[in-house]
Amino acid sequence: MNSSNDRKQLKRPCFELNQDELNEKVTLINNNKKKKDEDMNNLTTTNQGMQNSQDMSAVPLFNANDAGPYAVWIRSKIQDKELSALKVSLVSDKLAYTSIESCTKKRKSNVVVMLKDIQEANKLIRDPNLTAKNLETFKPKVARKSRKAIIRGVDVDIEDEVLLENIQYVNRFKLIDFKRMNMRNRTPKSEEDKWIPSRSILLTFEGQTLPREVFNAK
């Protein structure tokens, strides 16, 4: 009997903590856990900041070979979240971008901002204020080198050379091609007159946008 009691006594703790010592131990453990969590949060925040900085520095910018105006695409980082042109416009106004020509919604989560100034366009691409609002900006991979427009109702009796000499538009646009379009002849007399000149003129302008108006072409 005595040996059995001795074995039971050996299994008991060799020391006991009073309530104050126990509370101190629990507090110490909690503090260590809290410090570890804070260190992990700080490390995560630092890594995210470094990643954002690296991501922003990796975004391609416009260069001297790109013709203006400059299209900067803005989209939401949150998947399937709708982005309004008004929101982007208000944000850009607060950030004092003075060379913005237009702000247009393209898709559900995409808005295109057109800027006249290349430096402001590049500044907008890497603006950390937009990143803080869960927005990301980028330059289109392949910018349009030219755009085409059609002017209708131009008299076929006016020679193309005369039209080209008298056509007027805003100076900053550059006309790189001028062509009168043909149409199918409904009453052809031979193979040669299956197609005849139409009253439509195809204009090709350099850059990503078109002039709002073209004068003296009729």
Helix and strand topology:
Elements: H1 2-11, H2 19-58, E1 70-76, H3 85-94, E2 100-107, E3 110-115, H4 118-125, H5 128-132, E4 135-138, E5 146-151, H6 160-166, E6 175-184, E7 195-206
Antiparallel strand pairs: 1-3, 1-4, 2-3, 5-7, 6-7
Question: Would you write up a description of this structure?
Answer:
The protein has a four-stranded antiparallel beta sheet with strand order 2-3-1-4. Strands 5-7-6 form a three-stranded antiparallel beta sheet, with no helix packed on it. The protein has 218 residues and is of the alpha+beta class. It is elongated. Strand 2 (100-107) and strand 3 (110-115) form a beta hairpin. It has helices at 2-11, 19-58, 85-94, 118-125, 128-132, 160-166, and strands at residues 70-76, 100-107, 110-115, 135-138, 146-151, 175-184, 195-206. Mean pLDDT is 74; it is low at 43-54. The protein is built from six helices and seven strands.
